[in-house]
Amino acid sequence: MSDTAESRKFDVPAYVHELGVQARAAARAMGRAESCAKNTALNAIADAIVADQDRLKAENHKDLQAGRQKGLDSALLDRLKLTDARIEAMAEGLRQISALPDPVGAISGLEYRPSGIQVGRMRVPLGVIGIIYESRPNVTADAAALCLKSGNACILRGGSEALHSNQAIARCIEQGLGKAGLPSTAVQVVATTDRAAVGELLRLDKFIDVIVPRGGKGLIERVTGESKIPVIKHLHGVCHTYIDDYADIDKAVKVAFNAKTQRYGTCNTMETLLVAASIAERVLPILASQYQAEGVELRGCERTCVILDNIKPASDADWDEEYLAPILSIRLVDDLDAAMDHIDKHGSRHTDVIITENLARARRFLREVDSSSVMVNASSRFADGFEYGLGAEIGISTDKLHARGPVGLEGLTTLKYIVLGDGHIRT
Amino acid sequence: MSDTAESRKFDVPAYVHELGVQARAAARAMGRAESCAKNTALNAIADAIVADQDRLKAENHKDLQAGRQKGLDSALLDRLKLTDARIEAMAEGLRQISALPDPVGAISGLEYRPSGIQVGRMRVPLGVIGIIYESRPNVTADAAALCLKSGNACILRGGSEALHSNQAIARCIEQGLGKAGLPSTAVQVVATTDRAAVGELLRLDKFIDVIVPRGGKGLIERVTGESKIPVIKHLHGVCHTYIDDYADIDKAVKVAFNAKTQRYGTCNTMETLLVAASIAERVLPILASQYQAEGVELRGCERTCVILDNIKPASDADWDEEYLAPILSIRLVDDLDAAMDHIDKHGSRHTDVIITENLARARRFLREVDSSSVMVNASSRFADGFEYGLGAEIGISTDKLHARGPVGLEGLTTLKYIVLGDGHIRT
């Protein structure tokens, strides 16, 4: 693929169109592939990645050198780098996905109707999935594995800084598919760094069923703005923990501390702490001293600053901010309704938590807060495909339609109706 | 609403924006509304519609008169007309929807994870639904009822020719909502015929969660082209019946006749008949004489025209045509694979049928044909929300994401994750 692509005078629209045609054809073969063929492919790709470790590192070295010359920052270079441990982790991820149950073909709710026909639903692949992501080579293997197991064909377009690494991984994937007798075009990794290829992919609505952008807000806004194809996207996470006046203080402190400090840069990290006014004087001083010992900057509303007199006041902008950093905004609220109003106005509908021992409060919060994950007495950091038992995830969707929250294999499938009759007609 | 709307100097963007703000606020109240309040509203709307029968007919008469002056064709005028029987049917539809189970709040799969948290999913409303439809007043009541029962707020924009009828129905809906203590803004019927209102609705992505266009292909293409909001759409139905060489001739004739002739203008009507070459001489002459007796025009491929020498040859364009008329294209195919290739190339992924007594063939067809409904030995005319037991439908989706096939109450909801812990933190 990459040889052809590089040797001809490069016509990006024609090249991308061809990827689409091939993916659509491969999707039919993948839709009827048996589980054991798909699992054989996944394990063979894992083997090839381990066997090709030296070549992968050599190709990755080219990307790293080019990246240094281009002056990429150290965080980017770190994400780009393939170490032995990361290569092993990629292979392990593939093997784990092969061990997950195959969602394709499962029939649910098959029931007789009064007319005599049987009606049910069968879980089937979406078809062709386009994934656009930044320069992390491991995503190439992860995304390919999830699409393959769910019976989809995919077109992967990784960040241009990872071109050599991604093409090297693509060759391992091709080998694995070949060993299982599956079409090599079931996974196609775009072999050009020309950014026009992204625009072409987004117009390929004839061939691609869904686009999954993985990366920063800029990428996601570009994709949703331009795409003619439905998008499963993860926008951002402004997550709240509300400490209700019926909270157990020890649990509140433990959970609110963990939700902020266990990792700062993740979308399910708490960004705003809401505290019922009547419990604030008992819980905030304990929490504040723990946060401050950890180096977390606190920004409080007026009433918070009365209780915690050594912190910065929060500005209006703070309530909408996804810090992804050791900063926390804190607001006192009068009651559960005020907390839910704040979440409705400022939240990003990702993950929100109530800490309470009161069943009526928990029941209302669970039903009324409109977020992809709603929790009682647990850290928002649990909002994750592995913790939820999905086995692996392609991302966390902040959309409401189709797939909401962590998106695993099931989110890459859809349900079609099946009808069984014996010569039944409608009268 | 309509009085305010008509008396001020009309600012369409501001008016539509206000609808959005009010709908978003109403959506929160609807999301937490109890089933009995929603059912009370549905039955009270039905009562109001029956009680207001004379006023409804008087308002409808204004629309009909204006329509005649504008020179609307008789089919359009017929769809616009409210008769006593149609008013009774609207009320009956509302009562049927009140009798359906409430999907909102159902929790599924709540299981303990190794970390000790419980994870499950709760079915919740989508939020705010925008529905754009043509001039059939009964859709106003049907769509309002489905949105109301599924806990959503909605903004309804019916065809301008039905303005007076729709506003009269809107007043009945408002009465019913009031009787149940639900916000009157849970159902808002756009009170202007200005077409700019549609464009404004499609840009209201801050307030509307999903747009459902109901109507002809032109409307649906405009909506999908312009909308910034996810769309659940029904595009068109090019449905196939494939008579396999293992078909029972009697069942094949019965089903294929019904699939074409039971109604001509519906999306689930068969448009192309595929016949295995080896069985064609036995089945086609019988079927052709039945179709011709019914006045169905047949258009055949070359090989078909050898067997049926009194029919028109089909052109290439015939295989992609949704006739919605007493016309049928017929093609001979060599085997199951050729039939599925034809369906993949020319079908619209709506509803496709195999007639066979062979289990292996049925099994392959069910799995491999990528359509919203796939059937064995049953008429494609069964693809319908009532026949499938959904109780009522807002349309038949030809999309793959979110809702595929007939869309009932469940299609107007989504699943959020819920997590229950007791002070659990992530380590």
Question: Could you characterize the architecture of this molecule?
Answer:
2 copies of one chain form a homodimer. Chain A is an alpha/beta fold and 427 residues long. Chain A is 44% helix and 20% strand. The first copy, chain A, is built from 15 helices and 16 strands. Chain A has helices at residues 2-7, 12-32, 35-51, 53-70, 74-80, 84-99, 137-149, 163-179, 196-202, 217-226, 249-261, 277-293, 302-307, 336-346, 359-368, and strands spanning 107-112, 118-125, 128-133, 153-157, 187-189, 210-214, 239-243, 270-276, 297-300, 312-313, 327-333, 351-355, 373-378, 395-397, 405-407, 413-424. In chain A, the strands form 4 sheets. A 7-stranded parallel sheet of chain A has the order 10-9-11-8-7-12-13. Chain A has a 4-stranded parallel sheet with strand order 5-4-3-6, with helices on both faces. In chain A, α3 packs across α8, α6 packs parallel to α7 (137-149) and α7 runs parallel beside α8. The longest helix of chain A is centred in the first third of the chain and has 21 residues, at 12-32. At the A-B interface, α2, β2, α11, α15 and β13 of A face α2, β2, α11, α15 and β13 of B.
Keywords:
homodimer, 427 residues, alpha/beta, 15 helices, globular
Please outline what is shown here.
2 copies of one chain form a homodimer. With 427 residues, chain A is an alpha/beta fold. The first copy, chain A, has helices at residues 2-7, 12-32, 35-51, 53-70, 74-80, 84-99, 137-149, 163-179, 196-202, 217-226, 249-261, 277-293, 302-307, 336-346, 359-368; strands at residues 107-112, 118-125, 128-133, 153-157, 187-189, 210-214, 239-243, 270-276, 297-300, 312-313, 327-333, 351-355, 373-378, 395-397, 405-407, 413-424.
